[in-house]
Structures are given as structure tokens and as C-alpha cells.
Design brief:
250 residues; mainly alpha; 2 strands; 72% helix; rod-shaped
């Protein structure tokens, strides 16, 4: 994945995508901070965790966005660090499952947050609600944000994926099963190798055709020369016979 990210981030448009995704996460989280940091929470921006299905640059973008959103909202440092890591783990898991159905690809952020966030709420915020109960409430909030809003966002962005996230090779059946691959530098190198091989094949075919044409010309010329020779010798024989007949008559 790191190689793909390095290749992708060489493109200025992908850097802009990172900035835009992180900015959206920060702004919306800060605006909805009243119900984004409690034991019963619905962090609307977790819907953006579906974006790694489209592009790997969404993974660092979500991590950066979560980090600065928690920082600007005044969250304690354990939430800034470990909450951002939970988002990073979830986004990376979604990217790894990008070839699966969307409702499967969105599972990692839900699991990562319901396992990590309750401990942050207990030890960083001092909330006394039992951890299993907070796992339930945080998990339900993540299902609402990722599972409902995230899948809606996926359906909205799907028709515009090439314009928004670059070129994608994708096959989708009637059940929403997806396979995609970003056209990275490696893909372009493979394509150039394939085109080079195709040019070499075309060149060899052209040369073989040319050689065949040349051999056919040579055979035709040889046949023509042979025919001329045969015609000339036959003509000479006929001429000599005619001369002999005239001599006899005389």
C-alpha cells in the first residue's frame, strides 16, 4: 500500500483529495461535536470511512482529519492519539476489503471503534458507564454512521468515481460486487510494456509480410523470365524449321 500511496501522492490532484477529505472530516466533526464525543455518540464523519473503497489516498486523509478534528475540538490527548489510530486502522481495513461488497468493506471501522473508543471514554473522559455497554452504544453509533450513512454516500459517489477519484478499473455485478484497481504507475508501466510487445509483434508481422511479398515477386519474375526463355527458344526452333522447309522447296 505504501508504494501505491507514494505513486498516488506524486499527483497534485491526489494531494488535493487528501486535503479535501481531511478538511471535510475536521469541519463536520467540529460542527457536530455535541454528539461526537460521548458514550452515546453518532460521529457523522465516520461515513467518510467508505472512501478507501475508491482510492487509497483516503486512508491517510481520514487519519489526518480525525487527528486535527479531535485536536481542534479540545479532546484529551488519548482521544487525539488512539482515536485517530482507530480511524486509521478502520480505513486501512476498508481499503484491504475494497474488492468485497460495500457492506463488508465498511466493517473494519465499526469493529476498530467499538473496541478502542470505549476505553478512551473510560480513561480519558472518566465516563463510568460499563465498558461492554459503551461498546454496544459506540458500535450502534458506528453502524448508523458507517453502515447507513456510509453506504448512502457510496451509492451517491459511485456514478462519479472516475471524476472524483481518478481512473478505476472496475467490474460490478447486479449485487454490487466490485473489483477495482487504481491505475498507478505500475499499471502504466505494465501497459507500456504490453504496448511495446504489441509494437514488436506488429513490426515482426510487417517484416514477414514484406519478405513474403518480396519472395512472391522473385518467384513471379523468375517464372516470367523462364517463360520468356522458353518462348524465345521455341520461336527460334520454329523459325529454323521454316527456313529449312523454304530451302527444300527452292
Amino acid at each position: 500500500m505504501l508504494d501505491q500511496l507514494k505513486e498516488k501522492l506524486k499527483d497534485k490532484f491526489n494531494i488535493l483529495r487528501v486535503i479535501m477529505i481531511a478538511a471535510m472530516y475536521i469541519v463536520v466533526t467540529v460542527i457536530t461535536a455535541q454528539f461526537s464525543f460521548l458514550d452515546v455518540q453518532l460521529r457523522v464523519t465516520e461515513a467518510l470511512c467508505i472512501l478507501p473503497v475508491f482510492t487509497p489516498v483516503a486512508v491517510p486523509a481520514l487519519f489526518i482529519g480525525c487527528f486535527f478534528a479531535n485536536l481542534f475540538a479540545g479532546a484529551p490527548w488519548p482521544d487525539i492519539v488512539f482515536g485517530s489510530l482507530a480511524t486509521l486502522v478502520g480505513a486501512y481495513g476498508t481499503w484491504k476489503l475494497r474488492d468485497q461488497k460495500p457492506f463488508i468493506a465498511i466493517i473494519p471501522p465499526i469493529v476498530a471503534n467499538l473496541l478502542i473508543v470505549p476505553f478512551i471514554l473510560r480513561f480519558a473522559y472518566g465516563i463510568e458507564t460499563p465498558i461492554p455497554m459503551m461498546m454496544l452504544t459506540v458500535g450502534l453509533g458506528e453502524i448508523g454512521a458507517c453502515g447507513v450513512l456510509g453506504l448512502l454516500l457510496y451509492r451517491v459517489l459511485l456514478p462519479y468515481k472516475e471524476k472524483l477519484f481518478g481512473y478505476v478499473d472496475e467490474v460490478e455485478d447486479g449485487y454490487g460486487y466490485r473489483r477495482n484497481r487504481e491505475r498507478t504507475g505500475e499499471y502504466r508501466r505494465e501497459s507500456s510494456r504490453g504496448s511495446g510487445r504489441g509494437d514488436a509483434r506488429r513490426g515482426s508481422r510487417e517484416s514477414s509480410r514484406e519478405s513474403n511479398r518480396g519472395s512472391r515477386r522473385e518467384r513471379a519474375d523468375e517464372y516470367t523470365r523462364g517463360s520468356r526463355r522458353e518462348y524465345t527458344s521455341e520461336y527460334r526452333r520454329e523459325s529454323s524449321r521454316g527456313d529449312m522447309r523454304r530451302d527444300k522447296r527452292e
